[in-house]
User: Fold this.
Amino acid sequence: MTSNAPSNEGTPEGLNTVRQQLRQATHAAHVRLNLHPLLAGLTRANFPLSQYRLILGTYHRFFSVVEPAILDVLAASASVFSYADRRKLPWLALDITNLGDALAPPEIGRVIEVPGDVAELVGTLYAIEGSTLGGQVISRHLRANLGLTPERGARFFAAYGADTETRWASFCAYAEGLADDPVQRLRAGEAALNVFNTLEGLLDDCLHRQS
Assistant:
């Protein structure tokens, strides 16, 4: 049997794109994160607002560390990809304050690794930008179930709204810059996996503090 597909020497068989390889590398961790006790049920009608506030606080902690590093790597690499209008930290801060909570000071505890080069950046952004797709579904349920809107408490999950698919396609095109470098592709997968595992750990920390 022959194939007209491009050669994928050095990459797992059948994974023709960086996106496919990242998806395979993170699938199990992604599923596990979605089933975390703090996140499970986020789209249900009886989801507690108090629990939603804990989620926002946890994500704010993550992005307060990771987002400056994202901007640093992009600046250092003179990349054409822009993250300036994709920043999630201001959205989280807006949601937290709109719900009447104070922004928590940085915590000393779990180490949050940040991207240090383009390969790690691509992996990190895969997890972050990919979450905006599911955020569209969550945003609709937050409005219907809790009365939350982008203007009141749900800016983070609303993300890019109608432009989400276009923004995701733009990132995927950027990620394909690693297509011809198997080592960089693998390192991107490790960085993406690290994001899911880190968020799971931060949510665990939050859950344990509440028990």
Summary: The chain has one domain: 18-30+44-210.
